[in-house]
Structure formats: C-alpha cells, structure tokens
Structure prediction request, 482 residues.
Amino acid sequence: MKKTILVIARKEIVDGLRDARAVMASLVYALMGPVVVGLVSLSVHSGKVTAAMMAVFTLVSAFVGGMSVAMDTIAGERERHCLLPLLLNPVDRRSVAIGKWLAVSFFAVAGLAVNVSGCLAVVTLTGMRTTSPDLGMVLSAAFALSALGLLAAAVQLVISTLTNAVKEAQTYLSLVVFLPMGVGMFLIFSPAANGPWSVLLPMAGQLLQVQALMNGTPFQWLAAFVSGVLTVGVAILMLMVAADRLEHHEIHYWS
Amino acid sequence: MIKTHRLSKAFNGRSVVRDLSFEAPDGAITGLLGANGAGKTTTLRMICGVLPPDSGVVSTDRHRLGALLDHMGIYARLTTRENLEYFGRLRGMPEGLLEERTDWVLSVLGLKAIANRRTAGFSQGERMKTALARALLHSPQNLVLDEPTNGLDVPTIRSLRDLLRRLRDAGTCIVFSSHVLDEVRALCDKVVVISEGSVTAQGTPQDLCSQTSTHSLEEAFVSLTCQ
Prediction:
C-alpha cells in the first residue's frame, strides 16, 4: 500500500510540476502577499497591522498553492477520462486518495514555504522585526503551517471528488479560498473573538502563530503543537470523506 | 476465462443489463455485438470490477485482467513510456520486467518513435495505441477491449488483429466489444449478441447465421436485434 501511495503521489507531483501555467499562478500568488504587504508597510507605520495582513495572505496561500493540482487530480481526471483506467488497477481506493492528497499537500506546503519566506524577508527588510526568530519558533510554526497545508489539500480533494470537471471544481475551490480569508479578517476586526482558545483552532491558530512570528511576540509552543495536531486530525477526517467518494461508482461511471 | 452469470444493472430505475450470462473461454476471441446503448460497455465495466452489478456474478481473475474501455484516458503531460511505467508500477511489476515489457509493447504497437514524447497532441490513433499498450503491459491472461480499433488506420488495425490472434493462440481470453460487423467476423471465434441489455443469441458467426437462416452476420444481427 505504501509503495502504491508513493507511486501515485510521485506521478501527480511530476504531472503538476509540468503544468507550467498552474505552477506560475501559484508562485505569483505565494509571493503576492509579501509584495503587497511590503508596499503597504511603506505608508502604514503599524507593524501589527501589516503582520496581520501578512498572516491572512499566508493562510490563503495554503489554499492556493495546491488548488490547481487538487482540481486537476480528480475532477480533471474525470473530465479527461483518466480516472477510470486508474481505478481499473487492483489498487485500494484509499491508496489512490492518500497518494493524490500527498501530492496536493506538497504543492500547498511549497506555496506556504514560498509565502512565509517572502514575508520574513519583507519584515526584515522593512525593519518591522529586528530580531531573528529562534529555531524552536521556526520549527513550531513549520509544523503548524504544514498541518494547515495538509488540511487545505484534504478539503480541496473532497471538493474535487464532488465535481465533474475542472471548471466546476474551480468555481467551488475559488470560493473555499474565502474561508481562511474570512477567519483571518474576523480575528483581525473582532479582537473580542480572539480568546485563548482561538490559538488552538485550525486556521485561527496558524493565523495567530504567523502574526507572532512576524511581530516577534511571545509564542505559545504547546498551543502551536495542539493546533497542528487538531488540524491534522480534521485533515484526516476530510481525507476519509474523499476516499469514500472514490468508492462510489458514479465517480468513474460517467467519466 | 471470463464468465458472467445472470448479471443485472439498473441506473435510476432504468434497467441497462438484464440477466446477462455468457462464457468467454481461454484461447478464444469472444465478441460482444450490440447496437449503441445495448449494454455492452456497462457489461464490460462490471467484468472489470469498476461497476458492481445489482445482481449476478462475474467469475474471472481480475489481477490478470487488462482492459481498454470506452475512453483512452492517458495522461497528456506524461510521455508514452511514463504512462506505461506508471501503470506497470501500480500493478507492482518489478522494474526489470517493467522495462522489458514496456519495450515489447512499444515495439509491437509501433510506438517506439514516440515513446519519449508527451502524449498531449497525439492523434486519435496514437492515443488508442498507447492505451492498448497499457492494457497489454502486464501480460494479462484476460483481455477486455471496448471497440479497440476506433480511430486506427488500416495498417494498425491489421497489426492489431495479428497481435490479438497471436495472444489468442497463446491462450489469452479476449472479450472484444464492437458494433462493426466486419471487425467481429474477421476476429471473433464466438459472438454474443446483446440487445436491450440481454443476450439474444451466442455462438460462432456461422451458428448465428444458421440460427437465423441468414447468409451474413449482418443479416443475422439485424434479425436478432430488430425483432
């Protein structure tokens, strides 16, 4: 099963990397956040505001990084009639779902890595943060953000299994991007909602951790870990839904 | 061998396949002949295991089954060779054997010249041959082909027929669906005529002509399906 998962994941990653237009779009989005925030920081002299903006862009980049691959890997394959030959093989449907999920996650985490690196470069260059983040802080944020990438990939995969064509998947996946944006905006403009529990929640937790990383404010290690674990838990639940969808014969009958 | 026993399938209350039984022996080419919408593709999908029947049983070794169903479904951003290697690895073929078999199918189907080209932009015939190569890659004992000559040029059709005859002579069980009567007459040892989801007749092309007191497979087919 492990070998099958890796074979599927590898193929999807190679396939995704050869889609130059999609890779370029994801890269441009991942870097757009730092560039916009960098420009805004020239006129707004509040580090907190720009850090909050940056955190929202980071959250969204998790959902944009793997979006093209997510819509292509199931809905696109249905549309191009590639899913049926794949499912004709004596391969466990869960392995198919996990392999595709790992590939989408790869792109989501790559998008996050590009975005966070860009953000750190901006905060350093604009003097918003004068001290370097310590290794523990970086590792902790990397764990929590990677978990967010896994969650974004799982959500997108479920949507892809529910749609018949790339265009249809794109419509819904574009709407899903508003979810992290909404969470981010809600926490920024409703400080009352920003209670001690917020840092534990998937998306909200990552948002607050990225803000702390950019601001250089104290970091709650345990909360970051719990938030990461909870996020992975939700991602696995979503992945199970995607795997279950692949078991339904309608998914390939009309492909 | 592929054996179906009283297979039935309905979609949204509409019966597509009804009590369909036939046997395709090893070392023979069995043709499923039927008009558009007769239930051939649904039957083949049930044989391949991607569509569960509502009732009835399919007996075959699916681990030794190769299939080319109604759509080719090859990956446009992968080369012909990469497409084949991907499916070979999914079937757990050892790397040495995979390389050997890949070279063999590429050679047999005349795909060597385009083996390292991405399949985007391939002609219908090239895509069909790539999909056929994928179905033959793991030396399947049972081969299911849904209208495999669609889009192929005459020389390729002839070489495909030769290949199928060689596979049959080597003991492979081949189930072949078509609505092209010349194709069926030229290739099939046994013909199963399907009409509105049920088997209306089966036997050799000569048997069908005798049963219907006709002189050609075309007349026999019309007689069996238009009653």
Q: What stands out?
A: The CA atoms of residues 20 and 169 of chain B lie 27 Å apart. The first strand of chain B starts at residue 2 and ends at 11.
